[in-house]
Specification:
- By secondary structure, the protein is of the alpha+beta class.
- The chain has a domain of 131 residues: 3-Layer(aba) Sandwich (NADH Oxidase), CATH 3.40.109.
- The protein has seven helices and five strands, in the order H-E-H-E-H-H-E-H-H-E-H-E.
- Strands 1, 2, 3, 4 and 5 form a five-stranded antiparallel sheet that branches.
- Helix 2 runs antiparallel to helix 6 and helix 3 runs antiparallel to helix 4.
- It is globular.
Length: 219
């Protein structure tokens, strides 16, 4: 799909958009890093600090797990689904041939970023702005999604491949116990990252004509 060719006032805009275009989902990852752990932490830290939130509520909570701590997440997921297999809720053949290999592929990566939302922290602002009380939870989720995206794009810019997973709420309780996290933190997503060993699949697009409308544009 082509893009409009323009000259932006700030060259960083071109860089930002090129990073968005190049972001992909990578599943085959190995436990290597092209940058230091401090650099990874800086990406996550700046994303948490600077992604906007409605009324500056700052509801996103993030846990960065590297190396052996990262592998614990996927051991938890494997154990949780094994329990479902034992209970007859998941076919054993499906688990052994599809689910477990996929989880082991996540486990083989370098790190996982856990993204949470602290909905309990919204109690006071919901009371203060009661007219909008039912909007704050969705607003918090939107802010969290922006944090996920920024971390993903920044990690890929530094040479990682990544994929975003959602094994919550299946793993939530054990995640909280393992790392002593507050029960008010509600897990939303898990970003797995490492050095990619394969190329991503081809991007496909629904035509923009049905997705974007522009009015009042100067000729």
């Amino acid at each position: 799909m082509g893009s409009i060719q323009v000259d932006f006032k700030n060259p960083a805009t071109t860089t930002l958009l090129e990073l968005a275009k190049s972001r992909r989902t990578y599943y085959d990852l190995k436990a290597e890093s092209p940058i230091s752990d401090d650099a990874i932490e800086a990406i996550v830290q700046d994303s948490v600090l600077h992604v906007p939130s409605s009324f500056n509520t700052q509801t996103s909570r993030v846990v960065l797990l590297l190396k052996e701590e990262h592998r614990k997440v996927w051991d938890i997921a494997i154990n949780a689904i094994e329990e479902l297999v034992a209970a007859g809720q998941v076919p054993k053949e499906v688990f052994e041939t599809q689910t477990k290999p996929k989880l082991n592929a996540f486990r083989a990566a370098y790190g996982t970023v856990l993204f949470f939302v602290d909905y309990d922290s919204l109690a006071s602002i919901k009371e203060k702005f009661s007219l909008y009380a039912d909007k704050f939870d969705p607003f918090a989720m939107e802010s969290n999604a922006m944090t996920q995206y920024l971390v993903w794009v920044a990690l890929e810019s530094e040479g990682f491949g990544a994929n975003l997973q959602h094994y919550n709420p299946l793993i939530d309780e054990q995640i909280q116990k393992t790392w002593g996290l507050p029960t008010s933190w509600k897990l939303d997503a898990q970003l797995v990252f490492g050095v990619s060993t394969t190329d991503p699949g081809e991007k496909t697009f629904t035509p923009l004509e049905g997705r974007l409308k522009v009015f009042g544009k100067s000729q």
